């Protein structure tokens, strides 16, 4: 199977990180990989990408006429892709060399129509001691309790997800009205909505292989408590948006909340009783705060979405 990997980028500030992402795609152990680069309306970035990658036979490079956002750029990349599978990775991530090989295995051995894997953290400025692993999803990393092992899930992160090309095309790609920043309302969930439509149309979710790893760079600003609180609020808002826009996608968050309240919290309290630590206390405190902020964002979403 040929795998086309779409990487979208738009700013020179991220260029070196983009190069690391692109190079990781080109260094895959799977021997039939195509890199599709979509520059989102920044000619200066396009010139550098074309200079560095434009002459490669295994690479397609294009530039949008204007900035249209991540989901529209991904859709364009998928249209240009020639692979049997279209995969997506962000320009601040680095794929394990066996990433596409593991994805192909899911299609060939599990009869998957979509496949994704685990997001692991690359702490650029060090791991914050207060951040509980249950909330790693705030920084784009697979969180504790996501899945017990390989199997079908609703969706994986947008930086580690793939689809059979014909399925992606049949679904019309990502709904560009769903994801991306709209003013200060950071509505997330493009892959969630798409996968909900996919399950409705095909009766299947995404095959999750935890060995299909992509490392996500967690920059310093993403480890600041204020940023995490803001992120949690808009994630709660997005949850309500998904309830309205894609009601069939709901369920995973409720299960996560139950796990948080009836498993994680009692477990952490027990750990602190047996072995008290400052880090443990901070993580328990952060767990309660972030859960409350997500709830506040959801309630705000009710006033907006109804």
Layout of helices and strands, plus pairs?
Layout: E1 3-9, H1 15-26, E2 33-39, H2 43-53, E3 59-63, H3 70-80, E4 85-89, E5 93-95, H4 99-109, E6 114-123, E7 151-153, E8 161-164, H5 165-171, E9 180-182, E10 185-187, H6 190-202, E11 206-218, H7 225-245, H8 252-274, H9 278-305
Parallel strand pairs: 1-2, 1-4, 2-3, 6-11
Antiparallel strand pairs: 4-8, 5-11, 6-8, 7-11, 9-10
Structural class label? alpha/beta
Order of helices and strands: EHEHEHEEHEEEHEEHEHHH
Helix proportion = 40-55%
Name the quaternary structure.
single chain
Question: Shape from CA axes?
Answer: globular
Number of strands: 11
Largest sheet: 9 strands, mixed
Could you provide a short overview of the structure?
The protein has nine helices and eleven strands. The strands form two sheets. Strands 1, 2, 3, 4, 5, 6, 7, 8 and 11 form a nine-stranded mixed β-sheet that branches. It has a two-stranded antiparallel sheet with strand order 9-10.
Describe the protein in words.
By secondary structure, the protein is an alpha/beta fold. The protein is 45% helix and 21% strand. The strands form two sheets. Strands 1, 2, 3, 4, 5, 6, 7, 8 and 11 form a nine-stranded mixed β-sheet that branches. Strand 2, helix 2 and strand 3 form a beta-alpha-beta unit. The longest helix is centred in the last third of the chain and has 28 residues. The chain is globular.
């Amino acid at each position: 199977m040929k795998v086309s990997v779409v990487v979208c980028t738009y700013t020179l500030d991220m260029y070196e990180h983009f190069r690391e992402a692109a190079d990781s795609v080109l260094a895959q152990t799977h021997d039939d990989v195509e890199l599709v680069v979509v520059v989102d309306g920044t000619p200066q970035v396009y010139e550098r990408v074309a200079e560095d990658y434009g002459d490669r036979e295994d690479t397609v490079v294009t530039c949008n006429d204007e900035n249209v956002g991540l989901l529209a750029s991904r859709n364009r990349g998928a249209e240009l892709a020639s692979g049997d599978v279209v995969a997506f990775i962000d320009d601040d991530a680095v794929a394990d060399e066996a990433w596409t090989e593991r994805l192909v295995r899911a299609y060939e051995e599990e009869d998957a129509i979509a496949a994704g894997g685990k997001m692991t953290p690359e702490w650029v400025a060090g791991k914050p001691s207060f951040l509980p692993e249950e909330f790693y999803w705030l920084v784009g990393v697979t969180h504790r309790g996501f899945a017990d092992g390989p199997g079908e899930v609703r969706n994986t992160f947008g930086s580690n997800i793939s689809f059979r090309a014909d399925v992606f095309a049949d679904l019309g790609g990502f709904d560009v009205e769903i994801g991306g920043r709209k003013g200060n309302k950071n509505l997330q969930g493009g892959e969630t909505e798409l996968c909900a439509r996919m399950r409705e149309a095909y009766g299947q979710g995404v095959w999750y292989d935890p060995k299909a790893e992509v490392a996500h760079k967690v920059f310093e600003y993403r480890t600041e408590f204020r940023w995490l609180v803001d992120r949690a609020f808009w994630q709660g808002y997005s949850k309500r948006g998904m309830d309205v826009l894609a009601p069939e996608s709901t369920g995973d968050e409720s299960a996560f909340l139950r796990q948080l309240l009836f498993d994680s919290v009692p477990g952490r309290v027990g750990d602190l009783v047996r072995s008290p630590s400052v880090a443990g206390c901070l993580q328990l405190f952060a767990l309660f705060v972030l859960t409350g902020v997500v709830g506040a964002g959801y309630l705000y979403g009710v006033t907006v979405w109804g």
